[in-house]
Amino acid sequence: MIKVNLLPERKKIPKPNRGRGQVKKSLLWIIRVVFVIAAFYLTYKLGKEGTVEATIKSTSNYVWNGFIVLLKIVPAIFILAIVLALTCYELAKWNLVFTFVAEGRAKMVVRGDGKYVRTLVAKKGFTALEMESTRGKMGEVVLLLPGEKEMGGWPAKKLGMYYVGIPPYNKIFDYVLKWTTWKIKEGAAADDYSPINEKEKLDSILLAQYAYYVSANGAECIGNMPIDVKLVMTLACINPYLAFIATKDWIRQMNAMVEAAIRAFIGTKTFDEINSGKDAAKDECANFIRDKVETDLKNLYGIVTFGIRIIDFIPPSEYSKIATKAESDVREAEGQGAAQLTKATKDAESAGQEELALAARGRGKAAAMAAEAAVLTANPALTAIEIARALGDKTVIALGQGADIPSVITAKFIAERKGGVTQ
Fold it and tell me: What are the angstrom distances between the C-alpha of 406 and each of 124, 318, 384, 411?
């Protein structure tokens, strides 16, 4: 697992904490101002009315009339506030003026024909940079500094709504995403994973880790044997601006980079090196791909690599068929030859052929080989398999491809089994 350091290189001086203490101070100042205004008003009324009784009566009438007016206005203000909140909610569903951003995702605000404005991030403890700095590139999602507030202000914190701007000048960026993931098909077994092609129109960007399926078909190893390579990459987007606006279709670009790295790795290996130690070859291939693409993916597309897993190295289907058929033919011929050799020995014993029986039981290996040679002479297929064993695996593969063994080699082989010499 790769550790991604999103912390800044230098710390920013935290802003003063404007918490409950500041609210209390503000309320006290408001109360003081109200008392001062009330004192001036009472002094004015006392001078105008001339007596305290008249001043109190006049003030009480004024306060009562104001209270009646307030009772009429407050319900209207309350109803207006509810209508305004519902209107903003409906507009946010259509990404007009406001928008909703799901946790762990981001949305981008664009202007006019797609000019980038800002990124709206809904991820606890993270924000998006409005310009390039020591903390990262423009639009990059980074950790909040101590004292730094999350994006969106109180509408985002209390209502979950983020301000977009006045339409049609400001709008939310949307796009069509095509990708392939590695998951279980609907209705399949619990461990039956397979590549699934996906296509969806979206207006938000996933910031969490996600598994993407990548393949390179026909990558040629040393000897020009083509091999299909299947793998899964766990990636996460940390800069939506680079991935979707500065670059068109980052997934296709990523596939091209990974496929080129796979072909470069396979081109340095023989098929035996890959096939004989698959687990070690998988780890080596994954590390090779990581070294080739990790830095470019982050710097060019804002994509962080968290893991690479090679699923399998798959040889051509023709090679698999030949190898399987050759193995099947060898096993079948071995079974037939053993059965015929046993039957020949028993028949010789029952017919009273003491010489062959003695050879099979008492004269040891030389007589047994002579009896076996008799069976091999009567069974050309078995003879071919035994010769293939003696000559090596390449002959088995040749037999599987339908090749013939020269008669001279066959005669010499049977003669050696009999213990004689071919002229």
Answer: 77, 25, 10, 9
Q: Which residues contact 141 (CB under 8 A, 6 or more apart)?
A: 6, 106, 119, 121, 123, 126, 127, 128, 207, 238, 239, 240
Identify the residue whose tokens are 């730094």.
148
Digit-coded pLDDT (tens) for 273-290: 888 888 899 999 999 999
Kindly report the pTM of this predicted structure. Answer: 0.61
Cβ neighbours of residue 390 closer than 8 Å, sequence gap 6 or more: 413
- Six-digit token pair at 393? 């695996």
Alpha-carbon dihedral of residues 119, 121, 126, 132, nearest 10 degrees?
Answer: 0
Q: Kindly state the tokens that stand for 45.
A: 């009324």
pLDDT tens for each residue of 135-180? 888 999 999 988 888 888 888 888 889 999 998 899 999 999 999 9
**Facing residues of 196 across strands?**
181
**Which candidate, 331, 328, 284, 325, places its Cα nearest to that of 308?**
284
Which string of b and e fits 267-280 if b means at least 16 CB within 10 Å?
Answer: eebebeebeeeeee
Task: Name the most confidently modeled range: 178-187, 256-265, 328-337.
Answer: 256-265
Crossing angle (nearest 10°) for helices 407-418 and 380-391: 90
Q: Is the Cβ–Cβ distance between 168 and 31 less than 8 Å?
A: no
